[in-house]
Specification:
5-stranded antiparallel sheet; alpha+beta; 11 strands; Ribosomal Protein L22, Chain A; about 30% helix; globular; single chain; 6 helices; about 25% strand
Amino acid sequence: MVETATRPSGWLLWCSLAEIPLPVELDWLSLSEQQRLSKLSSPRRRETFLRGHYGLRLALADCLGGSINDWLIEQLDSGALQLASTGHQNIGVSISHSGDWLALAISAVGPVGVDIEQIKPRPSLAELLADYAAPALQHACAELPGAEQLRLWYRWWCSYESWVKQQGRGIDLAEFGRMTLEVVDEGDLPDDCKTLCLEQAELMLAVSGEAIRAGSPELPVYRVIS
């Protein structure tokens, strides 16, 4: 893993997908993971799925101990991941990938959601804003130059997706279209209402849940309101 942000209650890791070994044997997959894998016909999507789920087990073993076979992960119909290993049901996990990048989040204190997006130019950004963005996001973007509009779009989208994943839900574009994103004082919110954004030149990454409560003080903490 090339980047790691470690906290007492959780771990956030991101790296190139290619850094995760692609296992030959698949006996470490749970039945629900095998069923999800069988529905993926694209070789690229199958490879991404396997690297992500294997990488999560490597991270769990590295951060919390044991071997990859000690960590039983079930994939729910919603796509959310849930630990089924005895004594570990309260540990939250989340996976996200974009392009060649993978992000993993582990929370020792409850549900967590993560989203990573590789920032790319979007020629149709004006249409996306008009069709899907909340009024608050549209108004904010109207005052910014194009490059900053793009980053703001990604910041809102990553925050929203990590937030719904933390709640075990799927994306609702209508909900995204009415949300607001506020910078808050970390002490003003319960830990499970917080979202932290990490921004790099080509990446936007957001994590939601209690694992972020000891986040880096220089990074703003957001609250998603729908």
